[in-house]
Each structure stands twice: as C-alpha cells, then as structure tokens.
Recover the amino acids of this structure.
C-alpha cells in the first residue's frame, strides 16, 4: 500500500514537473532568440504594398543600427545583417550553413529588438525620418514549443512586431507602431 502511494506521488510530480520544466526552458530560450517583423502599409494604394523602399532602424541616440529594404513584388521588409546577410541558401549542400545562419540571425534580431526605437524610411519621392517604433513582443510559443502538433509546436523564439501605415500619394505618416 505504501509503495502504491509513493508511485502515485512520483507520477504526479512527473506529470506536473516535466511540462513546467519544458515551458520554463522554452521561455528562457525566447529571451535570447527572436524574429523581428516590420509591416509597412500604404493606405493610398489599392493593394496596400510599400515596394522598393529603403529603411534604417535607429537606436535611442539616433544612430543607424540596421538597414533594410522592401522587395519590389510583395513589399516584404528584409533587414540586412552586416556580418552574414539574409541567410539565403541556394542548394541542399548549403543547408547546414543556413541553419547556423538562422540561429545567428535570430540572436541578432533579438538584440536588435531591444535597441531599436525609431525608423527612417525612403519610398519613391517620400522621406520619413525618426518615426517612433514601438515593438510588440509575442512569446506564446515559449510555453507550447514541445507539443508535437503542427500548429502548436515549433521553436520557442520571441516574435517582435511593429507596423507603420503611410500614405505615399501625400507623403504622410498615418499611424506608427
């Protein structure tokens, strides 16, 4: 009888302790690795895309800490890390280099997110300087990364988000964030 009580106690601690340890590990991981997503939207354009724009991320002193651009088709923002670029891999042989680059870039993004305070942007004939940028952070994956389901698991990286709405016809800032 005593042995059964001990077995139930160990089982309870295991069932409660393992998920808590995994979630804690995921949260700690998310403190050091992250991805930065900046959304630019043109409210004056039919498709809302800001294409072929160049941008600079600025720190609190107004120094440029990263540069980037939007592509010419979808308007996706791509930041250029000075040491290792954008981690593009053209072949299966480069897959290991790509994985190492993505880890290094995730660490760089996390560091960058903690320092960025403003955005300067040039799109067409419009120039915008020192747009205050307030990043929102999502660390939800840190708690559920270990669950083996398609839409729940994954790496427990932090995700930083900011969005800026512009009217490029009038060269006017609509919203920032």
């Amino acid at each position: 009888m005593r042995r059964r009580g001990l077995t139930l106690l160990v089982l309870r601690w295991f069932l409660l302790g393992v998920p808590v340890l995994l979630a804690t590990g995921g949260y700690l991981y998310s403190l050091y690795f992250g991805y930065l997503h900046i959304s630019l939207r043109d409210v004056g354009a039919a498709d809302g895309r800001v294409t072929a724009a160049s941008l600079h991320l600025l720190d609190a002193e107004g120094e440029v800490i990263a540069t980037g651009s939007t592509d010419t088709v979808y308007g996706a923002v791509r930041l250029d890390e000075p040491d290792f670029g954008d981690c593009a891999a053209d072949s299966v042989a480069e897959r290991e280099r790509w994985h190492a680059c993505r880890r290094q870039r995730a660490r760089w993004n996390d560091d960058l997110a903690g320092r960025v305070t403003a955005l300067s942007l040039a799109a067409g004939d419009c120039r915008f300087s020192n747009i205050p940028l307030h990043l929102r952070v999502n660390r939800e994956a840190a708690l559920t990364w270990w669950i083996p389901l398609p839409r729940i698991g994954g790496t427990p990286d932090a995700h930083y988000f900011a969005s800026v709405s512009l009217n490029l016809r009038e060269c006017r800032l609509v919203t920032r964030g």
Remarks:
- DSSP finds three helices and nine strands in the chain.
